[in-house]
Amino acid sequence: MRSSSKLTRRTESMTEEMRNNDGVSFKHVLDIDSFTRSDIELVLENTSAMEEVLNRNIKKVPALRGKTIVTLFYEPSTRTRVSFEQAGKILSADVINVTDSTSSSSKGESLYNTVLTIQAMKADIIVIRHHHSGAPHFLARNLKSHVINAGDGAHAHPTQSLLDLYTIKKRLGSIDGKKVTIIGDLLYSRVARSNLWGLTKMGARVVLCGPQTLIPNDFLNGHRKQEGHPFASVEIESSVEKALDGADVVMALRLQRERQQAGHLPSLREYSQSYGINSQRLKLANKNALLMHPGPMNEGVEIEPDVAHGNQSVIEDQVTGGVAVRMSLLYTLAAGSDNEILPRP
User: Fold this and answer.
1) Spatial CA neighbour of 193 closest among 147, 149, 241
2) Contact indicator for 164, 318 with CB cutoff of 8 Å
């Protein structure tokens, strides 16, 4: 009984640190384009409280006791799937993991029929990763449950964007006005797409750099410069040295090897020579610039090993922050439908 009392007091303490969730404008987490700046700030603020829970000796609070979370992963994943599972379990939710190999989709069941099955389970939150862009939106239209996009095709990866924003804010104090240079496969990266929304909404100066064959056409043909375009302020730089000059954050994107097979790149070696981050190039950024990568990382291609594991790297921080951000999102969504989910002092 004594340990239960301590746990309740700790949970109440966490409740006091969490901002009121009544004002959030989202029921689902499909991409950052639907978030307001205040939504993002709320998630990041609540993430700080969740990280405090992660730093305790006993990493368990009854915040989502009685809630059911189903994770549907139709693509291989380790970081994201385990991160969501850990986040749910720390908050005391019941977590059901379904992968492509264990689901009925391997027997030919359609996503729609899977939706009907989940609906019958009365799951509170669905976390989905799918190779088809738009799959999370399909679930959101057909389910009463909250839906979180854990990555859909080349479209979006909103939780990665939020954990990147959290890492930057925690390390640098703010995001507003910071120069963030993103280097790599900008055409197919769902991480880059979501980060463009998040960084611009939070006031960062964003510079994109990569092979011309891996930059979206609307960034090359001037369409984004039209009045009202959300990415009108985003800069394109062909020279990696110029892109890195004075950067506060350097974000390297994973280069998918199939891009070379598709003819987008001559070779991985040539890419590394032209765009890979090494110690000399990193010196062009600000002295205390952060080095980030969404993972999994091809060491020696996007980033040299000594830099990836150097003092400026916050890649491990991104992983830790990922659990806290996903805890924040799970709590925020559940609390939006049940304001008494945490006991009040």
Assistant:
1) 149
2) yes
- CA-nearest of 27, 21, 11, 22 to 63 is 11
Interatomic CA distance for residues 171 and 157, integer angstroms: 22
270-298: buried (b, 16+ CB within 10 Å) or exposed (e) per residue?
A: ebbeebbbeeebbebbbeebbbbbbeebb
Instruction: Write out pLDDT tens, residues 130-162.
Output: 999 999 999 999 888 999 999 999 999 999 999
DSSP of 150-175: EEETTTB-HHHHHHHHHHHHHHHS--
- Length in residues, the chain: 345
pTM given for the model: 0.89
- Spatial strand order in the sheet of 125-130: 94-99, 68-73, 125-130, 146-152
User: What gap in Å lies between CA 192 and CA 196, rounded to an integer?
Assistant: 6
Domains and CATH numbers, the chain: 2-153+321-337 (3.40.50.1370), 158-313 (3.40.50.1370)
Give the model's pLDDT for residue 120: 87
Q: Please give the single-letter amino acid code of residue 296.
A: P
| List of residues 6+ apart from 247 with CB closer than 8 A | 179, 180, 181, 207, 284, 285, 286, 289
For the stretch 157-190, what's the b/e string if a residue is b when 16 or more beta carbons lie within 10 angstroms of its beta carbon?
Answer: bbbbbbbbbbbbbbeeeebeebbbbbbbbbbbbb
